[in-house]
UniProtKB/TrEMBL annotation:
InterPro entries: DnaJ_C3_Co-chaperones, DnaJ_domain, J_dom_sf, TPR-like_helical_dom_sf, TPR_rpt
Protein name from the UniProt record: DnaJ homolog subfamily C member 3
Any single Gene Ontology cellular-component annotation: endoplasmic reticulum
Organismal lineage: Eukaryota, Metazoa, Chordata, Craniata, Vertebrata
Example GO biological process: response to unfolded protein
SUPFAM superfamilies noted in UniProt: Chaperone J-domain (SSF46565), TPR-like (SSF48452)
Localization (cell): Endoplasmic reticulum
Placement of TPR repeats on the sequence: 37-70, 71-104, 105-138, 222-255, 340-373
Superkingdom of the source species: Eukaryota
GO MF annotation list: misfolded protein binding; protein-folding chaperone binding
Key words, A-Z: Disulfide bond, Endoplasmic reticulum, Repeat, Signal, TPR repeat, Unfolded protein response
Chain spans, region Disordered: 130-150, 451-475
Length: 503
């Protein structure tokens, strides 16, 4: 049996070895950590030099995590952030470097430059002044002095811009802010002030550019998104307006201005989308009603009124309501005389009304603003053919029906005129001869307009009964005088024994 004293002696004998092993393990961990940070720093520098910024950043993250008091790890990471254009992330790292090593002039100079770009002029000047007092290199001293002078000049320009803005001299204020923003490119306040100047000057595109920048430069900038939404709304861009106001509500769902505006834009957007769907489905009368509702929803913004009228003009033209279409199209063209779509729609409506010369004028005007538009060319050709045709023989006019007349109306008009101009109704030779010619024209008109193929040709400016335009095609010869109708009697009486088919 082994004694307790012997066991105790054995344990005591091993204790020093255990302590040595523990100490070695601890030292290994410590050395491993230090070695790991150094390795990350070295790899980060190599990758940065090679332009592999994302990989370099990963190593500097690891170095900072491994040694939170290593000021060079923060400085290197800030350098990568700056190379990646992430100044917001670089600034806290530079501040941490200065906190850990206050005499690190390069970090302070870089932070001063970032603060200057952000328009934080007082803080930037403080950094530049401290660099000047910290025994800098000649290069650092020259740069700090130059930036300090620049900051003083910008302070003066900012004060002048605010004064000009207060005096409502927006053009001068915008010019002064241009100079400020050349240096302070990330200055949200200056960009927002310049955006307001542009709004007052009516230069909405420039205002949008500044506000978009401001919305990115400042976190939770709900006001920038609200202004963007209202600008797009007043420009008639309901979809962009809706996008921007939604961004505002993502940041603050309870934002009163944005929520109120959102409801209005959403309602209008829904009405416009619904109207466009109705046009696509060729439900033109319903589309007209929907666009009339759009004008009631937003009666003050001219862009939406013009949009609604433009689309009403199109819907009326497509539904063959030419007279109404011409009236509405003309209203739009009074405000927007170069609107190509409306010019094309009114031209089509003029064709429907057989006002071919007016149609040609509209197509000519449209062509000046849209040279390669195939619709314009085809419409112009058609209007010119129809004008030429109208100067010869117009089957619609012969029967006294509109171009939109249905077959039933055409046959009814034909019967009435055939009875009126039947040659048997006339005894005087001259009157009979005139009636024969008239009767032939009536019969030809009926044949063309009740035959879908012939009517389509005629509607496109081609006379299917004219030998000149039908060379090589089979056609009825009605030009041999009324004798060509021997045995042809539409009423089955008199000398004609062939009964005419009215169907």
């Amino acid at each position: 049996m082994v004694s307790i004293d012997h066991v105790a002696h054995k344990i005591l004998t091993y204790i020093p070895y255990v302590l040595v092993l523990m100490d070695m393990r601890y030292e290994g961990v410590k050395c491993g950590r230090d070695g790991s940070v150094d390795n990350h720093m070295e790899m980060g520098k190599k990758l940065l030099a090679a332009g592999q910024l994302a990989d370099a950043l990963s190593h500097f993250h690891a170095a900072v995590d491994g040694d939170p008091k290593n000021y060079m790890a923060y400085y290197r990471r800030a350098t990568v952030f700056l190379a990646m254009g992430k100044s917001k992330s670089a600034l806290p790292d530079l501040s941490r470097v200065i906190e850990l090593k206050p005499d690190f002039t390069s970090a302070r100079l870089q932070r001063g430059n970032l603060l200057l770009k952000q328009g934080r002029l007082d803080e930037a000047e403080s950094d530049f002044k401290k660099v000047m007092k910290s025994n800098p290199s000649d290069k650092e001293e020259r740069e700090a002095q130059s930036q300090l002078t620049k900051s003083d000049e910008i302070q003066r320009l900012v004060a002048q811009a605010r004064s000009s803005f207060s005096s409502q001299d927006y053009m001068t204020a915008a010019a002064q802010l241009d100079t400020v923003i050349e240096t302070c490119v990330w200055d949200v306040t200056s960009r927002e002030m310049r955006a307001e100047c542009f709004i007052q000057m009516g230069e909405m595109g420039k205002a949008i550019s500044d506000l978009k920048a401001a919305s990115k430069l400042k976190n939770d900038n709900t006001q920038a998104f609200y202004k963007l939404s209202t600008i797009y709304y007043n420009l008639g861009d309901h979809e962009m307006s809706l996008n921007e106001v939604r961004e505002c509500l993502k940041l603050d769902p309870d934002h009163k201005q944005c929520y109120s505006h959102y409801k209005q834009v959403k309602k209008l957007n829904k009405q416009i989308q619904s109207a466009e769907e109705l046009i696509q489905e060729q439900r033109y009368e319903e589309a007209v009603s929907k666009y009339e509702a759009v004008m009631k929803t937003e009666p003050t913004v001219q862009h939406f009124s013009l949009l609604a009228k433009e689309r009403i003009c199109h819907a009326l033209t497509q539904s063959q309501q030419a007279s109404r279409a011409i009236s509405v199209c003309s209203e739009v063209l009074q405000s927007d005389p170069e609107n190509v779509n409306v010019l094309k729609d009114r031209a089509e409506a003029y064709i429907q009304e057989e006002q071919y010369e007016d149609a040609i004028k509209d197509y000519e005007t449209a062509a000046k603003h849209s040279e390669n538009d195939r619709q314009i060319k085809e419409g112009m050709d058609r209007a010119q053919r129809l004008l030429k045709q109208s100067q010869k023989r117009d089957y619609y006019k012969i029967l006294g029906v509109k171009r939109t007349a249905q077959k039933k109306e055409i046959i009814k008009a034909y019967r009435k005129l055939a009875q009126q101009w039947h040659p048997d109704n006339f005894q005087d030779p001259e009157e009979k001869k005139k009636a024969e010619k008239k009767f032939i024209d009536i019969a030809q008109a009926k044949e063309v307009l009740t035959d879908p193929e012939k009517r389509t040709k005629f509607d496109h400016g081609e006379d299917p009964m004219d030998p000149e335009s039908q060379q090589g095609h089979h056609h009825h010869n009605f030009h041999g005088g009324f004798h060509g109708f021997q045995g042809f009697n539409p009423f089955g009486s008199g000398p004609f024994n062939f009964k005419f088919n009215f169907n």
